Amino acid sequence: MSRLRAADVVVGTELPEQVSRVTRADLVRYAGASGDFNVIHWSDRVAGEVGLPGVIAHGMLTAGLAARAVTGWAGDPGAVVDYHVRFSRPVVVPDDDAGAEVAVRGRVAALLDDGRVRVDLTVTSGGDKVLSLARAVVALA
After folding, report:
1. Helix or strand or coil: residue 106?
2. Can you give the residue range of the structural domain that contains 92?
3. Does residue 103 lie in a domain region?
4. Which of 38, 69, 34 has the alpha carbon at shortest distance from 55?
5. Three-state DSSP state, 3
6. pTM
7. pLDDT in tens, the chain (141 residues)
8. How far apart are the C-alpha atoms of 141 and 97, rounded to whole Å?
9. Strand 116-125 and strand 100-111: pairing?
10. Which CATH number goes with the domain that contains 125?
11. Comparing C-alpha atoms, which of 62, 78, 69 is closest to residue 120?
12. Which candidate, 121, 125, 116, 109, places its Cα nearest to that of 4?
Protein backbone atom coordinates (compact mmCIF):
# COMPACT_ATOMS: atom_id res chain seq x y z
CA MET A 1 0.00 0.00 0.00
CA SER A 2 1.28 3.47 -0.80
CA ARG A 3 1.43 6.20 1.77
CA LEU A 4 -1.88 7.96 2.35
CA ARG A 5 -2.09 11.64 1.35
CA ALA A 6 -3.64 14.33 3.57
CA ALA A 7 -5.73 15.57 0.63
CA ASP A 8 -7.55 12.21 0.58
CA VAL A 9 -8.69 12.36 4.21
CA VAL A 10 -11.56 14.23 5.88
CA VAL A 11 -12.98 14.16 9.39
CA GLY A 12 -15.08 11.02 9.62
CA THR A 13 -12.90 8.96 7.27
CA GLU A 14 -13.16 5.36 8.50
CA LEU A 15 -10.18 3.05 8.69
CA PRO A 16 -10.74 -0.50 7.42
CA GLU A 17 -11.66 -2.74 10.33
CA GLN A 18 -8.84 -5.05 11.34
CA VAL A 19 -9.70 -8.31 13.09
CA SER A 20 -6.92 -10.41 14.61
CA ARG A 21 -6.93 -13.71 16.44
CA VAL A 22 -4.72 -14.15 19.49
CA THR A 23 -4.01 -17.72 20.61
CA ARG A 24 -2.03 -19.13 23.49
CA ALA A 25 0.74 -19.92 21.00
CA ASP A 26 0.83 -16.21 20.07
CA LEU A 27 1.25 -15.38 23.77
CA VAL A 28 4.24 -17.73 24.00
CA ARG A 29 5.84 -16.11 20.94
CA TYR A 30 5.13 -12.60 22.27
CA ALA A 31 6.59 -13.49 25.68
CA GLY A 32 9.78 -14.67 23.99
CA ALA A 33 10.06 -11.55 21.85
CA SER A 34 9.22 -9.09 24.62
CA GLY A 35 10.79 -10.83 27.60
CA ASP A 36 7.46 -10.56 29.48
CA PHE A 37 7.02 -14.02 30.99
CA ASN A 38 4.46 -12.99 33.63
CA VAL A 39 2.57 -16.12 34.67
CA ILE A 40 -0.85 -14.50 34.03
CA HIS A 41 -0.08 -14.82 30.33
CA TRP A 42 0.16 -18.63 30.42
CA SER A 43 -1.30 -20.12 33.63
CA ASP A 44 -5.06 -20.33 34.15
CA ARG A 45 -4.47 -21.27 37.79
CA VAL A 46 -2.37 -18.21 38.60
CA ALA A 47 -4.59 -15.90 36.53
CA GLY A 48 -7.59 -17.10 38.56
CA GLU A 49 -5.71 -16.72 41.86
CA VAL A 50 -5.10 -13.04 41.14
CA GLY A 51 -8.72 -12.43 40.17
CA LEU A 52 -8.52 -12.61 36.40
CA PRO A 53 -11.11 -14.55 34.37
CA GLY A 54 -8.34 -16.58 32.73
CA VAL A 55 -5.07 -16.19 30.87
CA ILE A 56 -4.84 -12.72 29.34
CA ALA A 57 -2.98 -11.28 26.39
CA HIS A 58 -0.10 -8.94 27.05
CA GLY A 59 -1.33 -5.36 27.12
CA MET A 60 1.39 -4.22 24.76
CA LEU A 61 0.42 -6.96 22.31
CA THR A 62 -3.13 -5.59 22.29
CA ALA A 63 -1.83 -2.04 21.88
CA GLY A 64 0.39 -3.22 19.04
CA LEU A 65 -2.53 -4.80 17.20
CA ALA A 66 -4.37 -1.47 17.39
CA ALA A 67 -1.31 0.44 16.17
CA ARG A 68 -0.95 -1.97 13.24
CA ALA A 69 -4.43 -0.97 12.05
CA VAL A 70 -3.27 2.65 11.92
CA THR A 71 0.09 2.00 10.26
CA GLY A 72 -1.55 -0.22 7.65
CA TRP A 73 -4.08 2.48 6.85
CA ALA A 74 -1.43 5.22 6.69
CA GLY A 75 0.87 3.10 4.52
CA ASP A 76 3.94 3.96 6.61
CA PRO A 77 4.74 2.90 10.18
CA GLY A 78 6.85 6.04 10.57
CA ALA A 79 3.80 8.22 9.92
CA VAL A 80 2.49 7.60 13.45
CA VAL A 81 3.97 10.48 15.45
CA ASP A 82 1.98 10.00 18.67
CA TYR A 83 0.08 7.05 20.09
CA HIS A 84 -1.87 6.68 23.31
CA VAL A 85 -4.04 3.98 24.87
CA ARG A 86 -5.45 3.07 28.25
CA PHE A 87 -6.14 -0.52 29.13
CA SER A 88 -9.78 -0.86 30.18
CA ARG A 89 -10.31 -4.67 30.11
CA PRO A 90 -8.02 -7.59 29.48
CA VAL A 91 -8.19 -9.75 26.39
CA VAL A 92 -8.95 -13.21 27.77
CA VAL A 93 -7.35 -15.91 25.62
CA PRO A 94 -9.01 -19.32 25.93
CA ASP A 95 -6.99 -22.53 25.79
CA ASP A 96 -8.29 -23.66 22.40
CA ASP A 97 -7.33 -23.36 18.75
CA ALA A 98 -9.56 -20.34 18.10
CA GLY A 99 -8.14 -18.03 20.75
CA ALA A 100 -9.57 -14.55 21.22
CA GLU A 101 -10.65 -12.11 18.55
CA VAL A 102 -9.45 -8.50 18.74
CA ALA A 103 -11.27 -6.04 16.47
CA VAL A 104 -9.92 -2.57 15.73
CA ARG A 105 -12.02 0.16 14.15
CA GLY A 106 -10.92 3.74 13.66
CA ARG A 107 -12.00 7.05 12.25
CA VAL A 108 -10.35 10.37 11.61
CA ALA A 109 -11.57 12.62 14.43
CA ALA A 110 -9.62 15.80 13.67
CA LEU A 111 -7.48 17.46 11.03
CA LEU A 112 -4.43 18.99 12.69
CA ASP A 113 -1.56 21.18 11.46
CA ASP A 114 0.91 20.25 8.73
CA GLY A 115 -1.05 17.35 7.23
CA ARG A 116 -1.44 15.54 10.53
CA VAL A 117 -4.70 13.87 11.59
CA ARG A 118 -5.96 12.43 14.85
CA VAL A 119 -7.38 8.94 14.57
CA ASP A 120 -9.64 7.66 17.35
CA LEU A 121 -9.73 3.89 17.76
CA THR A 122 -12.28 1.45 19.13
CA VAL A 123 -10.69 -1.82 20.18
CA THR A 124 -12.89 -4.70 21.32
CA SER A 125 -12.64 -8.35 22.22
CA GLY A 126 -15.62 -10.56 22.91
CA GLY A 127 -17.89 -7.54 22.57
CA ASP A 128 -16.05 -5.64 25.32
CA LYS A 129 -14.02 -2.49 24.81
CA VAL A 130 -10.48 -3.44 25.83
CA LEU A 131 -8.69 -0.14 25.16
CA SER A 132 -10.04 3.28 26.04
CA LEU A 133 -8.81 6.69 24.96
CA ALA A 134 -7.03 4.93 22.11
CA ARG A 135 -5.81 7.45 19.58
CA ALA A 136 -2.98 8.14 17.21
CA VAL A 137 -1.65 11.24 15.50
CA VAL A 138 -0.59 10.47 11.95
CA ALA A 139 1.52 12.65 9.65
CA LEU A 140 0.18 12.10 6.15
CA ALA A 141 2.04 12.79 2.92
Report:
1. strand
2. 6-22+57-139
3. yes
4. 38
5. coil
6. 0.93
7. 578 888 889 999 999 999 999 999 999 999 999 999 999 999 999 999 999 999 999 999 999 999 999 999 999 999 999 999 999 999 999 999 999 999 999 999 999 989 999 999 999 999 999 999 999 999 998
8. 41
9. antiparallel
10. 3.10.129.10
11. 69
12. 116
